[in-house]
Amino acid sequence: MPIELASTQTVGATLGDEIKQKGVKAGIVGFSLVLLFMLFWYRLPGLMAGIALVIYLGSMLAIFKLFGVVITAAGIAGFLLSVGMAVDANVLIFERLKEELKKDKEYSTAVLDGFRRACAPIRDGNITSLISAVILFWLGTSIVKGFALVFGIGILMSMFTAIVVTRSFLVTLSGAAEKVPMFFGSGIRND
Questions:
Q1: Under 8 Å between Cβ of 45 and 184
Q2: Contact (Cβ atoms closer than 8 angstroms) between residue 170 and residue 113
Q3: Measured distance CA(150)–CA(63) in Å, rounded
Q4: How far is 36 from 41, CA to CA, in rounded Å?
Q5: pLDDT (0 to 100) of residue 134
Q6: Are 44 and 184 in contact (CB under 8 A)?
Q7: What is the CA angle 62-52-67, rounded to 5?
Q8: Which of 120, 150, 123 has its CA nearest to residue 136?
Q9: Distance in angstroms (rounded) separating the CA atoms of residues 12 and 7
Q10: Contact 153/60 with Cβ under 8 angstroms?
Q11: How many CA atoms lie within 13 A of 10 on its CB side?
């Protein structure tokens, strides 16, 4: 069977730049929508989670700059996936906090108990994802290694911001929660 050339295309550096720009734009839109949802659904704790996520974002960009991490389309995907895991950790924390508050505990006690109950699932989920990132980095091609590196760094930073930063904010807000409980409800209802 003879082979005939049907068409040819040239792929230049602008295609990669266009993909990167679209990935960054999608990340900004997605990040903004997640922040709005967290603010709407969790109110003031959602705002604190949003601030923790902005700290996460700034820390990640600083680490990328410090270690000279080159951001590719695969790296953007790893970064956005790690942002999702950071949001997931905050959701776990807030849902455990709500469960503790339903038991009529004081806010400060509920925060500590909620974090204690949420830490194990957050740790386990992040460790299994980190193991996957290490295996992908070890066995993958260069594109996969870029994804795995950014994803692994993101996992470590998301654990730090969820467990340390968000917790610090919520413990600091303990006094305000006792005085203005409407800012600490969930969604449309105040439960």
A1: yes
A2: no
A3: 10
A4: 8
A5: 95
A6: yes
A7: 15
A8: 150
A9: 17
A10: yes
A11: 3
Counts of helices then strands in the chain (DSSP H, E): 6, 0
pLDDT of residue 170: 82
Model confidence band, residue 177 (pLDDT cutoffs 50, 70, 90): low
Residue 70 sits at the vertex; the CA angle it makes with 48 and 150, to the nearest 5 degrees, is: 45
Structure tokens, 176: 């305000």
- Is there a contact between 94 and 164 (Cβ–Cβ < 8 Å)? no
Residue appearing with tokens 């999702």:
84
Which tokens go with 139? 């066995």
> Is residue 111 within 8 Å of residue 97, measured between CB atoms?
yes
Both tokens of 73, joined, read 């389309």
- Percentage of residues of the chain with pLDDT beyond 90: 17
The tokens for 38 are 């967290």
> Between the CA of residue 83 and those of 13, 73, 100, 142, what are the distances in Å?
27, 15, 26, 22
Q: Are 35 and 53 in contact (CB under 8 A)?
A: yes
